[in-house]
Design brief:
alpha+beta
Length: about 210
Amino acid sequence: MKPHPLSTRHTKARPQRGVVLFVALIALVVMSLAAVALIRSVDTATIIAGNLAFRQAATTTSDRGFNDPASGAMAWLTTTSANNGTKDPTKDATHAFNITNTGAGYYSNADPALSLTTDATWTGGSVALPDDGSGYTVRYLIQRMCRVANQLLSDANCLLSDADIDTSSHVVRTAPEAGRSMPGKPPLYRITIRTAGPRNTFSYIQAFVY
């Protein structure tokens, strides 16, 4: 009996196509993009939160523009009134309230051309803040609510308050009572405060006083 030789089989290996590697690379790219988006989202949220904090701090600091006892807007009005002695702003055209003083940030009329966003407008009315390193600067503008500048109240066409003018405990009579064109009410003053802070932060607030 003739022996048959053992037959051997040679299995040819199939070439690798790298599909798994390709899918893994795509997943890695997607995860990288997701990580970058998350980082940018966190950075944006941090920036927004920081800007809001600066804005709130600027608005809080703006109160100094009104109430600072040495250099605030109300201090300027009080001091100016006292420095004019017995002058009556309703009768004396030389009273400081009847004259525009741009250097002090005071306007005797509500100038419609006045730009509240131009740095050149805010040359006067600076409030002295303590040097605490915060970097905030506060300035104010005071506008007498009248149409005509540098005139007496009776000639300036002013927006008047509801209060009566009291001069030496004597209430000034209204125009019909006085028999001539003289208002018996004080004019309104509009105070605008601009606070500039870090990161180009600006805050504007306004108030009306008389």
